[in-house]
Design goal:
This protein is of the alpha/beta class. Helix content is 38%, strand content 14%. The chain has a 7-stranded mixed sheet with strand order 1-7-6-5-4-2-3, with helices on both faces. The chain has a 4-stranded antiparallel sheet with strand order 10-11-13-12. The chain has a two-stranded antiparallel ribbon with strand order 8-9. Helix 3 (70-78) packs antiparallel against helix 10 and helix 10 crosses helix 12 (424-442). Bound molecules: pyridoxal-5'-phosphate. Its cofactor is pyridoxal 5'-phosphate.
Protein backbone atom coordinates (compact mmCIF):
# COMPACT_ATOMS: atom_id res chain seq x y z
CA UNK A 1 0.00 0.00 0.00
CA UNK A 2 1.30 3.46 -0.91
CA UNK A 3 0.38 6.27 1.41
CA UNK A 4 -0.03 9.68 -0.11
CA UNK A 5 2.25 12.34 1.35
CA UNK A 6 -0.57 14.34 2.90
CA UNK A 7 -2.19 11.45 4.67
CA UNK A 8 1.10 10.22 6.12
CA UNK A 9 1.92 13.76 7.27
CA UNK A 10 -1.44 14.68 8.68
CA UNK A 11 -2.46 11.40 10.21
CA UNK A 12 -1.36 12.28 13.68
CA UNK A 13 -3.30 9.44 15.17
CA UNK A 14 -0.32 7.45 13.82
CA UNK A 15 2.43 10.07 13.96
CA UNK A 16 3.33 12.27 16.86
CA UNK A 17 2.14 15.88 16.66
CA UNK A 18 5.80 16.88 16.66
CA UNK A 19 6.37 14.77 13.53
CA UNK A 20 3.47 16.45 11.74
CA UNK A 21 3.23 19.59 9.66
CA UNK A 22 1.20 21.25 12.43
CA UNK A 23 4.31 22.29 14.27
CA UNK A 24 5.90 23.74 11.13
CA UNK A 25 3.57 26.71 10.76
CA UNK A 26 2.55 29.19 13.40
CA UNK A 27 -1.02 29.50 14.59
CA UNK A 28 -3.19 32.02 12.70
CA UNK A 29 -3.53 35.42 14.36
CA UNK A 30 -5.78 37.44 12.11
CA UNK A 31 -8.07 35.32 9.98
CA UNK A 32 -10.03 32.20 10.76
CA UNK A 33 -8.03 29.30 9.30
CA UNK A 34 -9.49 27.87 6.10
CA UNK A 35 -9.30 24.27 7.23
CA UNK A 36 -9.75 22.24 10.35
CA UNK A 37 -6.90 20.82 12.42
CA UNK A 38 -6.71 17.55 14.34
CA UNK A 39 -7.64 17.92 17.99
CA UNK A 40 -4.32 16.53 19.24
CA UNK A 41 -2.29 19.12 17.34
CA UNK A 42 -4.68 21.91 18.30
CA UNK A 43 -4.37 21.01 21.95
CA UNK A 44 -0.59 20.72 21.81
CA UNK A 45 -0.06 24.02 20.04
CA UNK A 46 -2.37 25.98 22.30
CA UNK A 47 -1.13 24.31 25.46
CA UNK A 48 2.48 24.97 24.55
CA UNK A 49 1.97 28.63 23.79
CA UNK A 50 0.15 29.00 27.11
CA UNK A 51 3.25 27.74 28.94
CA UNK A 52 4.64 31.22 28.47
CA UNK A 53 1.99 32.76 30.70
CA UNK A 54 3.05 33.28 34.32
CA UNK A 55 2.17 30.69 36.96
CA UNK A 56 -1.07 31.90 38.61
CA UNK A 57 -0.06 30.47 42.00
CA UNK A 58 3.03 32.69 41.99
CA UNK A 59 1.08 35.73 40.85
CA UNK A 60 1.20 37.67 44.09
CA UNK A 61 -0.32 40.71 42.40
CA UNK A 62 -3.77 39.23 42.45
CA UNK A 63 -6.45 38.92 45.13
CA UNK A 64 -8.23 36.35 43.01
CA UNK A 65 -8.37 32.67 43.96
CA UNK A 66 -5.88 30.38 42.22
CA UNK A 67 -6.46 27.08 44.03
CA UNK A 68 -9.52 25.01 44.88
CA UNK A 69 -9.94 21.43 46.01
CA UNK A 70 -10.10 18.74 43.30
CA UNK A 71 -13.61 17.76 44.44
CA UNK A 72 -14.78 21.31 43.83
CA UNK A 73 -12.90 21.52 40.55
CA UNK A 74 -14.88 18.46 39.50
CA UNK A 75 -18.25 19.96 40.45
CA UNK A 76 -17.33 23.11 38.57
CA UNK A 77 -16.07 21.41 35.39
CA UNK A 78 -19.14 19.15 35.41
CA UNK A 79 -21.41 22.20 35.37
CA UNK A 80 -19.60 24.22 32.72
CA UNK A 81 -22.38 23.51 30.22
CA UNK A 82 -25.11 25.00 32.44
CA UNK A 83 -26.25 28.49 31.58
CA UNK A 84 -27.05 30.16 34.87
CA UNK A 85 -29.87 32.23 33.41
CA UNK A 86 -32.01 29.17 32.62
CA UNK A 87 -33.41 29.17 36.12
CA UNK A 88 -36.46 27.17 35.20
CA UNK A 89 -34.28 24.33 33.89
CA UNK A 90 -31.74 24.48 36.70
CA UNK A 91 -33.74 25.27 39.81
CA UNK A 92 -31.17 23.67 42.12
CA UNK A 93 -28.40 25.95 40.88
CA UNK A 94 -30.71 28.94 41.37
CA UNK A 95 -31.44 27.72 44.86
CA UNK A 96 -27.70 27.46 45.61
CA UNK A 97 -27.26 31.10 44.62
CA UNK A 98 -30.15 32.13 46.89
CA UNK A 99 -28.68 30.14 49.78
CA UNK A 100 -25.34 31.90 49.24
CA UNK A 101 -27.09 35.28 49.31
CA UNK A 102 -28.75 34.35 52.62
CA UNK A 103 -25.50 33.14 54.16
CA UNK A 104 -23.58 36.26 53.15
CA UNK A 105 -26.38 38.55 54.35
CA UNK A 106 -26.38 36.85 57.76
CA UNK A 107 -22.57 37.02 57.85
CA UNK A 108 -22.87 40.79 57.27
CA UNK A 109 -25.48 41.10 60.03
CA UNK A 110 -28.43 42.06 57.83
CA UNK A 111 -31.52 42.60 60.01
CA UNK A 112 -33.16 39.27 59.15
CA UNK A 113 -35.07 36.58 61.00
CA UNK A 114 -33.42 33.14 61.25
CA UNK A 115 -35.17 31.83 58.14
CA UNK A 116 -36.03 35.05 56.37
CA UNK A 117 -34.68 35.32 52.82
CA UNK A 118 -32.20 38.09 52.15
CA UNK A 119 -32.13 40.63 49.32
CA UNK A 120 -29.10 40.18 47.13
CA UNK A 121 -27.72 38.92 43.88
CA UNK A 122 -24.82 36.90 42.47
CA UNK A 123 -22.78 38.75 39.87
CA UNK A 124 -19.70 38.22 37.72
CA UNK A 125 -17.58 40.06 40.30
CA UNK A 126 -17.56 43.10 42.54
CA UNK A 127 -17.50 45.35 39.49
CA UNK A 128 -20.94 44.24 38.33
CA UNK A 129 -22.13 44.25 41.95
CA UNK A 130 -21.01 47.88 42.33
CA UNK A 131 -22.74 48.92 39.08
CA UNK A 132 -25.99 47.44 40.43
CA UNK A 133 -25.58 48.96 43.88
CA UNK A 134 -24.82 52.35 42.32
CA UNK A 135 -27.87 52.13 40.08
CA UNK A 136 -30.09 51.35 43.06
CA UNK A 137 -28.78 54.39 44.96
CA UNK A 138 -29.17 56.59 41.90
CA UNK A 139 -32.75 55.51 41.25
CA UNK A 140 -33.74 55.88 44.91
CA UNK A 141 -32.29 59.36 45.01
CA UNK A 142 -34.03 60.32 41.75
CA UNK A 143 -37.38 59.05 43.01
CA UNK A 144 -37.05 61.06 46.21
CA UNK A 145 -35.91 64.22 44.41
CA UNK A 146 -38.70 64.00 41.82
CA UNK A 147 -41.28 63.63 44.57
CA UNK A 148 -39.87 66.84 46.08
CA UNK A 149 -39.95 68.61 42.70
CA UNK A 150 -36.15 68.98 42.66
CA UNK A 151 -33.69 68.50 39.79
CA UNK A 152 -32.10 65.07 39.30
CA UNK A 153 -29.39 65.86 36.80
CA UNK A 154 -26.30 66.10 39.02
CA UNK A 155 -25.95 62.97 41.15
CA UNK A 156 -22.63 62.36 42.89
CA UNK A 157 -20.88 59.74 45.01
CA UNK A 158 -18.40 60.73 47.71
CA UNK A 159 -15.45 58.39 47.90
CA UNK A 160 -11.69 58.28 48.46
CA UNK A 161 -9.18 58.85 45.65
CA UNK A 162 -8.07 55.29 46.39
CA UNK A 163 -11.21 53.75 44.84
CA UNK A 164 -10.86 50.76 42.56
CA UNK A 165 -11.27 51.49 38.85
CA UNK A 166 -14.77 49.97 38.70
CA UNK A 167 -16.13 53.03 40.56
CA UNK A 168 -14.68 55.27 37.88
CA UNK A 169 -16.32 53.06 35.27
CA UNK A 170 -19.65 53.28 37.08
CA UNK A 171 -19.34 57.05 37.23
CA UNK A 172 -18.64 57.40 33.53
CA UNK A 173 -21.05 54.77 32.21
CA UNK A 174 -23.97 55.81 34.37
CA UNK A 175 -23.28 59.55 34.52
CA UNK A 176 -22.67 60.08 38.20
CA UNK A 177 -19.94 62.42 39.41
CA UNK A 178 -17.29 60.99 41.71
CA UNK A 179 -16.32 63.46 44.42
CA UNK A 180 -13.00 62.08 45.55
CA UNK A 181 -11.49 62.83 48.95
CA UNK A 182 -7.82 63.52 48.31
CA UNK A 183 -5.13 61.29 49.74
CA UNK A 184 -2.25 62.77 51.66
CA UNK A 185 1.30 61.67 52.32
CA UNK A 186 1.26 58.62 54.54
CA UNK A 187 -2.58 58.41 54.62
CA UNK A 188 -3.87 56.35 51.74
CA UNK A 189 -7.57 55.89 52.52
CA UNK A 190 -10.64 58.14 52.65
CA UNK A 191 -10.63 60.59 55.53
CA UNK A 192 -14.12 60.25 57.14
CA UNK A 193 -14.28 63.89 58.28
CA UNK A 194 -13.44 65.29 54.84
CA UNK A 195 -15.77 62.77 53.19
CA UNK A 196 -18.77 63.83 55.24
CA UNK A 197 -17.95 67.51 54.63
CA UNK A 198 -18.19 66.83 50.89
CA UNK A 199 -21.68 65.32 51.11
CA UNK A 200 -24.41 67.50 49.61
CA UNK A 201 -28.04 67.22 48.50
CA UNK A 202 -26.95 65.52 45.27
CA UNK A 203 -24.94 62.78 46.99
CA UNK A 204 -26.53 59.41 46.22
CA UNK A 205 -24.22 57.58 48.65
CA UNK A 206 -20.85 57.63 50.37
CA UNK A 207 -18.77 54.68 49.17
CA UNK A 208 -16.40 53.32 51.80
CA UNK A 209 -13.86 50.58 51.15
CA UNK A 210 -13.22 47.64 53.44
CA UNK A 211 -9.78 46.77 52.20
CA UNK A 212 -8.24 49.41 49.97
CA UNK A 213 -6.74 47.94 46.82
CA UNK A 214 -3.58 50.01 47.33
CA UNK A 215 -2.58 48.88 50.82
CA UNK A 216 -5.34 46.64 52.17
CA UNK A 217 -6.36 49.16 54.85
CA UNK A 218 -9.96 49.16 56.15
CA UNK A 219 -11.68 52.54 56.02
CA UNK A 220 -13.43 53.63 59.21
CA UNK A 221 -17.02 52.91 58.20
CA UNK A 222 -18.30 53.34 61.75
CA UNK A 223 -16.93 56.88 62.00
CA UNK A 224 -18.39 57.75 58.58
CA UNK A 225 -21.73 56.39 59.78
CA UNK A 226 -21.63 58.36 63.03
CA UNK A 227 -20.57 61.62 61.36
CA UNK A 228 -23.29 61.20 58.75
CA UNK A 229 -25.95 60.50 61.39
CA UNK A 230 -25.00 63.82 63.00
CA UNK A 231 -25.06 65.78 59.76
CA UNK A 232 -27.86 63.96 58.03
CA UNK A 233 -30.03 66.60 56.39
CA UNK A 234 -30.42 64.47 53.28
CA UNK A 235 -30.59 60.88 54.58
CA UNK A 236 -27.36 60.08 52.76
CA UNK A 237 -26.64 56.36 52.86
CA UNK A 238 -23.43 54.33 52.79
CA UNK A 239 -22.32 51.60 50.43
CA UNK A 240 -19.42 49.42 51.56
CA UNK A 241 -17.10 48.08 48.89
CA UNK A 242 -15.97 44.99 50.76
CA UNK A 243 -14.57 43.27 47.66
CA UNK A 244 -11.71 41.73 49.61
CA UNK A 245 -12.44 42.63 53.25
CA UNK A 246 -15.98 41.18 53.26
CA UNK A 247 -14.69 37.65 53.69
CA UNK A 248 -11.94 38.64 56.13
CA UNK A 249 -13.40 40.97 58.74
CA UNK A 250 -16.36 38.75 59.79
CA UNK A 251 -14.01 35.88 60.55
CA UNK A 252 -11.01 37.46 62.22
CA UNK A 253 -12.11 40.98 63.20
CA UNK A 254 -15.72 40.39 64.34
CA UNK A 255 -15.48 43.39 66.69
CA UNK A 256 -15.03 45.89 63.85
CA UNK A 257 -18.40 47.40 63.00
CA UNK A 258 -18.49 48.03 59.27
CA UNK A 259 -21.58 46.16 58.04
CA UNK A 260 -25.38 46.23 58.46
CA UNK A 261 -24.90 46.73 62.19
CA UNK A 262 -24.45 50.38 61.17
CA UNK A 263 -27.86 51.88 60.33
CA UNK A 264 -26.73 53.91 57.30
CA UNK A 265 -25.08 50.99 55.52
CA UNK A 266 -27.67 50.06 52.89
CA UNK A 267 -25.69 47.78 50.58
CA UNK A 268 -22.43 45.84 50.50
CA UNK A 269 -20.55 44.14 47.69
CA UNK A 270 -18.02 41.35 48.07
CA UNK A 271 -15.97 39.35 45.56
CA UNK A 272 -16.64 35.62 45.81
CA UNK A 273 -13.51 35.13 43.76
CA UNK A 274 -11.22 36.90 46.22
CA UNK A 275 -11.32 35.75 49.86
CA UNK A 276 -14.62 33.98 49.08
CA UNK A 277 -12.20 31.36 47.74
CA UNK A 278 -13.73 30.71 44.27
CA UNK A 279 -12.01 31.01 40.87
CA UNK A 280 -12.51 34.24 38.89
CA UNK A 281 -16.06 35.09 37.86
CA UNK A 282 -18.21 35.63 40.95
CA UNK A 283 -19.25 38.51 43.18
CA UNK A 284 -22.20 39.42 45.36
CA UNK A 285 -24.25 42.44 46.28
CA UNK A 286 -26.42 42.39 49.37
CA UNK A 287 -29.01 45.04 50.25
CA UNK A 288 -30.07 45.76 53.78
CA UNK A 289 -33.77 45.30 52.96
CA UNK A 290 -36.31 45.35 50.14
CA UNK A 291 -36.77 49.10 50.58
CA UNK A 292 -33.18 49.71 49.50
CA UNK A 293 -33.59 48.14 46.08
CA UNK A 294 -36.15 50.04 43.98
CA UNK A 295 -38.61 47.56 42.54
CA UNK A 296 -38.54 49.07 39.06
CA UNK A 297 -34.97 47.82 38.59
CA UNK A 298 -35.98 44.21 39.16
CA UNK A 299 -37.22 41.91 36.44
CA UNK A 300 -39.40 39.10 37.68
CA UNK A 301 -39.20 35.60 36.29
CA UNK A 302 -41.75 33.03 37.36
CA UNK A 303 -40.49 29.54 37.69
CA UNK A 304 -42.10 26.58 39.35
CA UNK A 305 -44.69 28.84 40.90
CA UNK A 306 -42.09 30.89 42.76
CA UNK A 307 -41.10 34.43 41.96
CA UNK A 308 -37.46 34.72 40.92
CA UNK A 309 -36.40 38.35 40.83
CA UNK A 310 -33.37 39.18 38.68
CA UNK A 311 -31.26 42.28 38.68
CA UNK A 312 -28.07 41.88 36.65
CA UNK A 313 -26.38 43.65 33.76
CA UNK A 314 -25.77 40.53 31.67
CA UNK A 315 -28.07 37.68 30.71
CA UNK A 316 -26.22 34.39 30.10
CA UNK A 317 -23.32 33.25 32.27
CA UNK A 318 -21.81 30.05 33.65
CA UNK A 319 -23.16 28.26 36.71
CA UNK A 320 -19.88 26.80 37.91
CA UNK A 321 -18.90 29.75 40.07
CA UNK A 322 -22.17 29.73 42.02
CA UNK A 323 -21.76 26.01 42.62
CA UNK A 324 -18.14 26.55 43.66
CA UNK A 325 -19.18 29.24 46.14
CA UNK A 326 -21.80 27.03 47.72
CA UNK A 327 -19.25 24.22 47.96
CA UNK A 328 -16.78 26.45 49.79
CA UNK A 329 -19.43 27.65 52.28
CA UNK A 330 -20.54 24.09 53.06
CA UNK A 331 -17.03 22.66 53.04
CA UNK A 332 -15.35 25.22 55.29
CA UNK A 333 -18.13 26.69 57.39
CA UNK A 334 -17.33 29.60 59.69
CA UNK A 335 -14.56 27.63 61.37
CA UNK A 336 -12.77 26.81 58.12
CA UNK A 337 -12.92 30.35 56.76
CA UNK A 338 -11.65 31.64 60.08
CA UNK A 339 -8.69 29.24 60.08
CA UNK A 340 -7.81 30.10 56.49
CA UNK A 341 -7.95 33.86 57.12
CA UNK A 342 -5.84 33.51 60.28
CA UNK A 343 -3.24 31.54 58.32
CA UNK A 344 -3.19 34.24 55.64
CA UNK A 345 -2.73 36.91 58.30
CA UNK A 346 0.06 35.00 60.07
CA UNK A 347 1.92 34.35 56.82
CA UNK A 348 1.54 38.02 55.86
CA UNK A 349 3.09 38.95 59.23
CA UNK A 350 6.07 36.65 58.67
CA UNK A 351 6.57 38.25 55.30
CA UNK A 352 6.28 41.74 56.77
CA UNK A 353 8.76 41.02 59.56
CA UNK A 354 11.20 39.45 57.10
CA UNK A 355 11.06 42.57 54.94
CA UNK A 356 11.44 44.90 57.92
CA UNK A 357 14.52 42.96 59.03
CA UNK A 358 16.33 43.83 55.81
CA UNK A 359 16.21 47.45 57.00
CA UNK A 360 15.61 48.52 53.41
CA UNK A 361 11.85 48.95 53.32
CA UNK A 362 9.04 51.09 54.67
CA UNK A 363 5.84 49.11 55.22
CA UNK A 364 2.72 50.96 54.04
CA UNK A 365 0.12 48.26 54.75
CA UNK A 366 -1.53 47.83 58.16
CA UNK A 367 -1.50 44.82 60.47
CA UNK A 368 -5.30 44.96 60.56
CA UNK A 369 -6.72 44.77 57.06
CA UNK A 370 -6.46 42.54 54.03
CA UNK A 371 -3.55 40.09 54.49
CA UNK A 372 -1.11 41.75 52.17
CA UNK A 373 2.20 43.53 52.51
CA UNK A 374 2.68 46.80 50.65
CA UNK A 375 6.13 48.31 50.99
CA UNK A 376 8.48 50.79 49.41
CA UNK A 377 12.24 51.19 49.38
CA UNK A 378 13.61 53.58 51.99
CA UNK A 379 16.12 54.70 49.40
CA UNK A 380 15.12 54.37 45.76
CA UNK A 381 17.66 56.80 44.34
CA UNK A 382 19.94 54.10 42.93
CA UNK A 383 17.39 51.41 42.21
CA UNK A 384 13.64 51.72 42.38
CA UNK A 385 10.70 49.45 43.15
CA UNK A 386 10.11 48.72 39.46
CA UNK A 387 13.57 47.20 39.22
CA UNK A 388 12.95 45.04 42.29
CA UNK A 389 9.72 43.83 40.68
CA UNK A 390 11.46 43.12 37.39
CA UNK A 391 14.33 41.28 39.04
CA UNK A 392 11.92 39.12 41.11
CA UNK A 393 10.53 37.77 37.85
CA UNK A 394 13.81 35.92 37.41
CA UNK A 395 12.92 33.97 40.54
CA UNK A 396 9.44 33.30 39.09
CA UNK A 397 7.66 35.63 41.51
CA UNK A 398 5.14 38.10 40.14
CA UNK A 399 5.14 41.10 42.49
CA UNK A 400 3.76 44.35 41.06
CA UNK A 401 5.14 47.83 41.62
CA UNK A 402 2.88 50.85 41.16
CA UNK A 403 2.63 54.50 42.03
CA UNK A 404 -0.02 55.79 44.43
CA UNK A 405 -2.87 57.91 42.98
CA UNK A 406 -2.91 61.70 42.69
CA UNK A 407 -1.52 63.69 45.63
CA UNK A 408 0.61 60.72 46.73
CA UNK A 409 1.91 59.78 43.28
CA UNK A 410 5.54 60.25 44.27
CA UNK A 411 5.20 57.12 46.44
CA UNK A 412 5.88 53.83 44.65
CA UNK A 413 4.99 50.57 46.35
CA UNK A 414 5.45 46.86 45.85
CA UNK A 415 2.51 44.73 46.92
CA UNK A 416 2.34 41.07 47.90
CA UNK A 417 -1.15 39.66 48.38
CA UNK A 418 -1.24 36.64 50.67
CA UNK A 419 -3.87 34.13 49.56
CA UNK A 420 -4.82 30.82 51.15
CA UNK A 421 -2.51 28.86 48.84
CA UNK A 422 0.58 30.81 49.93
CA UNK A 423 2.35 28.75 52.59
CA UNK A 424 4.91 29.68 55.25
CA UNK A 425 7.61 27.89 53.25
CA UNK A 426 6.83 30.05 50.22
CA UNK A 427 6.70 33.20 52.37
CA UNK A 428 10.17 32.47 53.78
CA UNK A 429 11.60 31.65 50.36
CA UNK A 430 10.19 34.88 49.00
CA UNK A 431 11.90 36.89 51.73
CA UNK A 432 15.19 35.13 50.89
CA UNK A 433 14.73 35.85 47.20
CA UNK A 434 14.02 39.52 47.90
CA UNK A 435 17.25 39.71 49.91
CA UNK A 436 19.13 38.18 46.97
CA UNK A 437 17.54 40.68 44.61
CA UNK A 438 18.65 43.56 46.84
CA UNK A 439 22.22 42.24 46.77
CA UNK A 440 22.16 41.77 43.01
CA UNK A 441 20.85 45.30 42.53
CA UNK A 442 23.52 46.68 44.83
CA UNK A 443 26.16 45.26 42.53
CA UNK A 444 24.59 46.74 39.42
CA UNK A 445 25.13 50.29 38.26
CA UNK A 446 22.11 52.41 39.07
CA UNK A 447 19.63 53.27 36.31
CA UNK A 448 21.01 56.80 36.34
CA UNK A 449 24.60 55.60 36.02
CA UNK A 450 23.60 53.23 33.21
CA UNK A 451 22.03 56.09 31.32
CA UNK A 452 25.06 58.33 31.71
CA UNK A 453 27.38 55.49 30.65
CA UNK A 454 25.27 54.95 27.58
CA UNK A 455 25.29 58.61 26.60
CA UNK A 456 29.06 58.68 27.14
CA UNK A 457 29.42 55.72 24.78
CA UNK A 458 27.18 57.44 22.27
CA UNK A 459 29.32 60.59 22.41
CA UNK A 460 32.49 58.58 21.88
CA UNK A 461 31.09 56.84 18.82
C1 LIG B 1 -11.08 43.83 43.36
C2 LIG B 1 -11.82 45.01 43.79
C3 LIG B 1 -12.90 45.50 43.04
C4 LIG B 1 -13.31 44.88 41.73
O1 LIG B 1 -13.71 43.59 41.96
P1 LIG B 1 -13.89 42.45 40.86
O2 LIG B 1 -14.48 41.37 41.67
O3 LIG B 1 -12.51 42.12 40.37
O4 LIG B 1 -14.78 42.96 39.79
C5 LIG B 1 -13.59 46.60 43.53
N1 LIG B 1 -13.24 47.18 44.68
C6 LIG B 1 -12.19 46.74 45.44
C7 LIG B 1 -11.87 47.44 46.72
C8 LIG B 1 -11.45 45.65 45.01
O5 LIG B 1 -10.42 45.22 45.76
Amino acid sequence: MVLSKTSSESDISVHSTFASRYVRSSLPRFKLPENSSPKEATYQNINDELMLDGNPRLNLASFVTTWMEPECDKLMTDSMNKNYVDMEEYPVTTDFQNRCVNMIAHLFNAPLGETETAVGVGTVGSSEAIMLAGLAFKRKWQNKRRAEGKPVDKPNIVTGANVQVCWKKFARYFEVQLKEVKLTDGYYVMDPVKAVEMVDENTICVAAILGSTLNGEFEDVKLINDLLVEKNKWDTAIHVDAASGGFIAPFIYPEIEWDFRLPLVKSINVSGHKYGLVYAGIGWNIWRSKEDLPDELIFHINYLGADQPTFTLNFSKGSSQVIGQYYQFIRHGFEGYRNIMMNCRDNAMVLKEGLEMTGKFNIVSKDIGVPLVAFSLKDNSRHDEFEVSEMLRRFNWIVPAYTMPKDAEHVTVLRIVVRDDFTRTLAERLVDDIKTVLKLLDNLPSKFQELSLESKRNREE
